[in-house]
Amino acid sequence: MAKTELVTLGWAKSAQPQTGRVSVARIENHALTPPHDHLFHEIVFIEAGAAEHLTVEGTRLLRPGDIILIRPWQWHGYQNTQQLRLLNCLIDRRLMNELAVMMHHDERAFQLFTRPLPRPRESAPLVLHAAPAEGRHCLALLERIMAETRCRLAGWEPMATGALLEFLAMVVRFDARIRLVEKLDITDRAQKAVFDIAVWLEQNAAAKPSLEQLARRVALSPTHLSHVFSQRMGMGIVAYRNRIRIEEACRLLAHTDWSITEVAARLGYEEIAFFSRTFHQLTGKSPRQYRQARNHPAGAQLPAAEP
Predict the structure, then answer these.
(1) In the chain, ranges of CATH 1.10.10.60 domains
(2) Which has the minimum average pLDDT: 4-18, 199-213, 232-246?
(3) CATH-assigned architecture of domain 189-292
(4) Is 184 exposed, middle or buried (0-12, 13-18, 19+ CB in 10 A)?
């Protein structure tokens, strides 16, 4: 993307003046946002809704629990937003450097935020994901920072700093979990392969790779990959992929006004009949019935995986 197409945001235009060097704000119904970069660090927590995240690598569908780590000068934007609710945590570069000094005993972990990026505008922001319980903990920490920096009661600075450090430590853990596959014992090659494929499928729900393509990713034969995946995950690769896609379809049907055809297309389904049939098999309802019942206590739920 040409440099002239970007808007660079400084601290004064993005953070509330009274919040000092860290600012957390909840944004309801976040609108389309053109590509822009920042002079500060931004960490975004997706609380609800959906959107396409635009970066140098293209677009990615965001979901609740996603955490976006945007370093200074990295650009991003949002498009096709649907009831998107997020929390923006903005951190001044000087404060981040001071926090890094405080974390000197764990420098390697904090490099996630401080290591130099040779060409930041040519690199995409990191997207991590928090499981529901982890997401609730992150949300509580961000809300604590927001309350402390706004109310400024006695002792607010150490309280806000403590919550911020804990939140950053959570982000480091989420990143370490993704990197775990690179550190697993090489003697358990099959476990590494299954972990790698499962994570890749979760992050690329709309992709339609063949078994041969997946096998090449982990340097296993298609037959062996299929066997060990079924053995260790309790279901085959196709079933696992369908489950991920239908779980995401349930969320999009419940929290966006995208048409059923559009939801299916965004998740890689070319035939609406096949999408509807798969959806019914896993939820017991058609997509239309699920959407109509989304606010009902007895709404469709995905069944537990077979052991």
Answers:
(1) 189-292
(2) 4-18
(3) Orthogonal Bundle (1.10)
(4) middle
> Within 10 Å of residue 244's Cβ, how many Cβ atoms?
17
Q: How confident is the model at residue 234 (pLDDT cuts 50, 70, 90)?
A: confident
Cα–Cα distance, 251 to 264 (Å, whole number): 12
**pLDDT tens string 235-294:** 899 999 998 899 889 888 887 889 999 999 989 899 999 999 999 999 999 999 999 887
Alpha-carbon torsion (121, 122, 124, 126), positive or negative? negative
pLDDT tens digits, one per residue of 52-92: 999 999 998 898 999 999 999 999 999 999 889 999 999 99
Q: Tokens 């079933």 — which residue?
A: 239
If DSSP codes are grouped into helix, strand and coil, which group holds residue 215?
Answer: helix
Give the Cα separation of 143 and 149 in Å (integer): 10
Cα–Cα nearest to 85, from 42, 25, 31, 27: 27
Instruction: Give me the helices (H) in the chain, please.
Output: 11-14, 93-102, 107-114, 132-151, 156-183, 189-203, 211-218, 222-233, 237-255, 260-266, 272-283, 287-292
Asked if residues 269 and 259 have their Cβ atoms less than 8 Å apart, the reply is no
Indicate yes or no: pTM above 0.85.
Answer: no
Cα separation of 64 and 89, whole Å?
16
Mean pLDDT across the chain = 84
| Listed residue (19, 27, 37, 136) closest to 87, CA to CA | 27
CA distances from 25 to 40, 43, 131, 142, 187 (A): 15, 11, 22, 9, 46
Q: Please, which residues have CB within 8 angstroms of residue 72's CB and are 6 or more apart in sequence?
A: 37, 38, 39, 40, 41, 93, 120
Report the relative pairing of strands 33-38 and 7-9 from DSSP bridges: parallel
Class of domain 3-182 as given by CATH = mainly beta
Per-residue pLDDT band at 184 (split at 50, 70, 90): low
pLDDT over 50 at 126, yes or no: yes
Residue ranges of the chain that CATH labels 2.60.120.280: 3-182
